[in-house]
Design a protein that fits this description.
globular, mainly alpha, 0% strand, 81% helix
Length: 308
């Protein structure tokens, strides 16, 4: 059935409305899931691309709840649906999302495998933008794996392709550029090239100044903190970076990331022999890690507490 048919348009409108209403706080996760599950069978007889979109929404709902196993299953169902529709863009999107889940779980080899599949699909279908995104995502996975040379090579290639295409520069591209440039800064810092590291971090900072995106701000200032802590953990610029990063994470409502930031603050105060301030920061981190039931993180921070 044509994507211009009334039924197709109606179901697509329902799915788009679910996303908007969920993120707008008008409906909760259970209601959003119920609506999508009701319309997926109807979409099956209309267009498998719609089915894929429905499963992508279900995956997003389970992912944001922290149910990674169900998210992977739903993204897999989306991929199968897009394959039935012979939709390479949809297939690449589902594979990329599966890579993101594996990366979140710390299974970096699986993440890299999925991102490389995205590269292959994108190249064969001439999806240049998707290919550039996949290069950046693969590079970020290699960064987390500790392979800084490979991370730099892939991210620089992805960033170069993206920078050259101004017509791509919508909000999604700006977010990716901000994240990739930030991660490039971190990768170069790990190689000891702090001049190149700061160059990329400042480019990321320039990009994020053009946005009001809290996630982009969090990415940039997290990178600046990590780079500066590696080069000079006593640098007073860290105070500004901590403040800006905290504002961004508080806006995003991520208590775990706020806890991690308090740990970095504690490390800064420890480097400056400010034991009282270090203890305050570490206790703030412990409180949040306990609330999130992250026992290993609690133990790690407790070991950092200054001796009294």
């Amino acid at each position: 059935m044509s994507s211009e048919s009334p039924v197709y348009v109606m179901i697509e409108k329902v799915f788009n409305s679910v996303i908007e209403r969920f993120y707008g706080g008008e409906i909760d996760r259970d209601e959003a899931r119920s609506i999508v599950e009701k319309y997926i069978p109807r979409a099956t007889g209309v267009d498998m691309r719609l089915v894929g979109k429905g499963y992508n929404i279900l995956a997003m709902l389970t992912y944001t709840r922290g149910d990674m196993k169900s998210a992977l299953e739903n993204f897999g169902q989306a991929k199968t649906s897009f394959e039935s529709a012979e939709d390479p863009a949809g297939i690449a999107s589902a594979l990329n999302n599966m890579g993101d889940v594996h990366r979140k779980l710390g299974d970096l080899d699986a993440a890299i495998n999925h991102y490389e599949q995205v590269q292959a699909v994108a190249q064969s279908a001439n999806l240049d933008r998707t290919y550039a995104f996949a290069l950046c995502n693969t590079g970020m996975a290699y960064l987390e794996k500790g392979d800084y040379k490979q991370a730099i090579e892939l991210m620089e290639k992805g960033v170069g392709l993206t920078d050259a295409r101004v017509d791509w520069h919508d909000d999604n591209v700006k977010r990716l550029l901000t994240e990739a440039l930030s991660r490039l800064g971190i990768a170069y810092a790990h190689t000891g090239d702090f001049e190149k590291s700061k160059e990329y971090a400042n480019r990321a900072r320039f990009h994020v100044k053009q946005q009001t995106d809290a996630q982009g701000l969090a990415d940039v200032y997290s990178a600046l903190i990590e780079i500066t802590m590696m080069e000079n953990p006593k640098d007073e610029k860290l105070i500004e970076y901590f403040d800006e990063c905290m504002k961004a994470w508080q806006k995003l409502g991520s208590e775990v990331e706020i806890a991690k930031l308090y740990v970095r603050q504690g490390d800064y105060y420890t480097a400056n022999n400010e034991k009282a301030n270090a203890s305050i920061a570490y206790f703030e981190a412990i409180k949040r890690f306990e609330a999130a039931e992250r026992e290993d993180d609690v133990k790690t921070v407790q070991e950092k507490l200054p001796a009294t």
